[in-house]
Design a protein that fits this description.
The chain is mainly α. The chain has helices at 2-24, 29-44, 50-57, 61-73, 95-116, 121-140, and strands at 77-81, 89-93. A hairpin with a 7-residue loop joins strand 1 and strand 2. Helix 3 (50-57) packs across helix 4. The longest helix has 23 residues, at 2-24.
Length: 141
């Protein structure tokens, strides 16, 4: 249970950290979650339409439209035609959002990466497996 409680403590601590980022940049915490989802999609090599973005955020269609409009006005995302289906419009993260995110979250990410440097591949597989399993369980529940 100690590790489960530590994971919960990390999640609790990251919430206010993200809220500070949102507050400093005049956005809502849900906007931060949306930007993270969009950046994760880029890393995975996928595109997200507004509809596919809104689902995991728990937003209905009007709420998702308002979110994307807000982020677009702030210069943090843009709507573009899909490379795979020109009829489809996808949401892309703008360079401004990436720059702001790196400036704010970079030191935390660097610290986390630094902590992982001392582990071998077997240990990293175990570390990777635990939060992946918890994430999967949370998505199912």
């Amino acid at each position: 249970m100690e590790i489960v409680h530590l994971l919960r403590a990390v999640a609790v601590e990251l919430g206010p950290h993200s809220a500070r980022f949102a507050n400093q940049n005049g956005t809502h915490p849900t906007d931060v979650r949306a930007l993270i989802a969009l950046m994760d999609a880029v890393r995975a090599g996928t595109e997200l339409t507004a509809g596919r973005l809104g689902g995991p955020l728990g937003l209905n269609s009007p709420g998702t439209t308002a979110l994307v409009d807000r982020l677009e006005r702030a210069g943090q995302v843009r709507r573009v035609r899909s490379e795979g289906d020109r009829r489809s419009v996808v949401v892309e993260v703008g360079q401004r959002a990436v720059t702001l995110g790196q400036a704010f979250f970079g030191p935390l990410v660097d610290s986390a990466v630094g902590l992982l440097q001392g582990y071998d591949e077997r240990e990293l597989a175990a570390i990777r497996g635990f939060p992946a399993g918890v994430r999967e369980a949370a998505a199912e529940g």
